[in-house]
């Protein structure tokens, strides 16, 4: 029928997301987006509202895809926050190792280019990072550690996640990425164990005496 879109919007959005993921916002030209989606500039604008609007929709799609997996990992081990964090990193490493998707992480890639984003896109990236941090923080809640310690641990876990994405794009081998994740889990476990022993933070050499 005349005027009816002859393409699948979801498929086009998936292809556009991969362009942003692989190239980053700055290098994801309209030509590259058009080639990936099979759409001309006019169709891109009419369907998605321009590059910035399309970018935000791709961020949302990425978050829906992987955010659900993070949520399942972090909520799948009630009463065992360390295992929840381990499961979270298992999902992260599985995404990184997946040969069918670009390396790294779209959110990390976008955060690195934050100065180039418009206000709405920058706010979207920050909101997605905040959502990830809230998920991790909720998984740590069943712990005797002080709230401030748990806040710091949640930020730490998210920071390690973003670092893994950057390292993977630089070609760091999988065993090295897994070593980083293991050390992060050990840090979480040691900090929570220290809190369970009645301390608010791990002891340092300066605390002796």
From TrEMBL:
Ligase found in the keyword field: no
DNA-binding region boundaries: 29-48
Gene3D superfamilies: Homeodomain-like (1.10.10.60), Tetracycline Repressor, domain 2 (1.10.357.10)
Superkingdom assignment: Bacteria
Keyword field: DNA-binding, Transcription, Transcription regulation
Cited InterPro entries: Homeodomain-like_sf, HTH_TetR, Tet_transcr_reg_TetR-rel_C_sf
Presence of the UniProt keyword Transferase in the record: no
Ranges of residues in domain HTH tetR-type: 6-66
Coiled-coil zones: none
Pfam families with a match to the protein in the record: TetR_N (PF00440)
Protein name, as recorded: TetR/AcrR family transcriptional regulator
Native source species: Actinoallomurus spadix
